[in-house]
């Protein structure tokens, strides 16, 4: 049975490709995170298209987008808002901060102090902010795309493991291919590509996609056991100090289901799980020692080799 989720995703992907080149994989991962109601940490160098991709998503989905540059002097109230006294009305009025948007691009989140980071991550988890004892709900569709530069470490505050776990995925934009970079060079500055994008999906479409995935996409017991074994094995590996949490199990299963749906299937196969392992699990494991030649991504690749995937006849 064909799924509407695939048709909707293909429509979105085709629209975004009008403005940004060679980022189909990143587009897919961010879309999966959006459908899952999660947030994304983009770790990459400046100038590879993070802002442009975020703008393209917002315009294609007819959503609001706000961008804030995180700095050491950024205060929590600069992000979430503050009560301002109105002498005419003789009362305090809440002035909303930039966090009240559908998509928040949080540039260089690791440059903000832990206090400001915590204010953002609390809002990400609770989907609301509290100011002077009053709760203010964030928009129903709310997603944070947070970036951090993997090269520069001076003047930064590394995100603790417990806070990293709040991000549904951690992905890298990567450099474009030679052909894509030639296209970027030829087209840059001729027109505002993102401004010409028209919405192709609505908030209701996202609701429909979530409902379809929940009702139609099936996960067999073999796949469930495979997911649990992958996550539990991270806790037993000799090179890993801190393995993935039970939250990671839930997130991996959810990501695999959405991936299956936008591939046009109403069932999950091992390849769906494997494709989601690095973006969902890598930032959730902490390695032992100071082996800079080995990364969490290397450990997840080793994990996929060691844990046998179930064989399914479809």
Automatic annotation (TrEMBL):
<keyword id="KW-0067">ATP-binding</keyword>
<comment type="similarity">
    <text>Belongs to the MoxR family.</text>
</comment>
<dbReference type="InterPro" id="IPR050764">
    <property type="entry name" value="CbbQ/NirQ/NorQ/GpvN"/>
</dbReference>
<protein>
    <submittedName>
        <fullName>MoxR-like ATPase</fullName>
    </submittedName>
</protein>
<dbReference type="InterPro" id="IPR041628">
    <property type="entry name" value="ChlI/MoxR_AAA_lid"/>
</dbReference>
<dbReference type="Pfam" id="PF17863">
    <property type="entry name" value="AAA_lid_2"/>
</dbReference>
<dbReference type="InterPro" id="IPR011703">
    <property type="entry name" value="ATPase_AAA-3"/>
</dbReference>
<feature type="domain" description="ATPase AAA-3">
    <location>
        <begin position="39"/>
        <end position="169"/>
    </location>
</feature>
<dbReference type="GO" id="GO:0016887">
    <property type="term" value="F:ATP hydrolysis activity"/>
</dbReference>
<dbReference type="InterPro" id="IPR027417">
    <property type="entry name" value="P-loop_NTPase"/>
</dbReference>
<keyword id="KW-0547">Nucleotide-binding</keyword>
<dbReference type="Pfam" id="PF07726">
    <property type="entry name" value="AAA_3"/>
</dbReference>
<feature type="domain" description="ChlI/MoxR AAA lid">
    <location>
        <begin position="234"/>
        <end position="301"/>
    </location>
</feature>
<dbReference type="GO" id="GO:0005524">
    <property type="term" value="F:ATP binding"/>
</dbReference>
């Amino acid at each position: 049975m064909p799924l509407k989720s695939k048709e909707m995703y293909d429509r979105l992907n085709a629209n975004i490709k009008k403005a940004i080149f060679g980022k189909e994989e990143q587009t897919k991962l961010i879309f999966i995170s959006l459908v899952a109601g999660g947030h994304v940490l983009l770790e990459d160098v400046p100038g590879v298209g993070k802002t442009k991709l975020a703008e393209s998503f917002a315009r294609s989905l007819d959503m609001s987008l706000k961008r804030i540059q995180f700095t050491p002097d950024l205060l929590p109230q600069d992000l979430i808002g503050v009560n301002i006294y109105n002498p005419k009305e003789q009362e305090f009025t809440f002035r909303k901060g930039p966090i009240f948007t559908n998509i928040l691009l949080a540039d260089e989140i690791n440059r903000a102090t832990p206090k400001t980071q915590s204010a953002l991550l609390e809002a990400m988890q609770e989907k609301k902010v509290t100011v002077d004892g009053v709760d203010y709900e964030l928009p129903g569709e709310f997603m944070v795309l947070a970036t951090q530069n993997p090269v520069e470490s001076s003047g930064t505050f590394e995100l603790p493991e417990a806070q990293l776990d709040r991000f549904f995925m951690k992905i890298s934009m990567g450099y474009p291919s030679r052909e894509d970079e030639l296209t970027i060079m030829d087209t840059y500055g001729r027109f505002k590509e993102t401004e010409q994008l028209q919405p192709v999906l609505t908030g209701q479409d996202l609701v429909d996609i979530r409902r379809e995935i929940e009702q139609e996409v099936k996960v067999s017991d073999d796949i469930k056991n495979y997911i649990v074994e992958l996550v539990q094995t991270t806790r037993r590996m000799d090179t890993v100090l801190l393995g993935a949490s039970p939250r990671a199990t839930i997130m991996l299963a959810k990501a695999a289901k959405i991936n299956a749906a936008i591939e046009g299937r109403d069932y999950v196969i091992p390849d769906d799980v494997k494709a989601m392992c690095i973006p969902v699990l890598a930032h959730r494991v902490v390695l032992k020692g100071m082996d800079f030649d080995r990364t969490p991504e290397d450990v997840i690749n080793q994990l996929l080799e060691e844990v046998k995937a179930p064989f399914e006849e479809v």
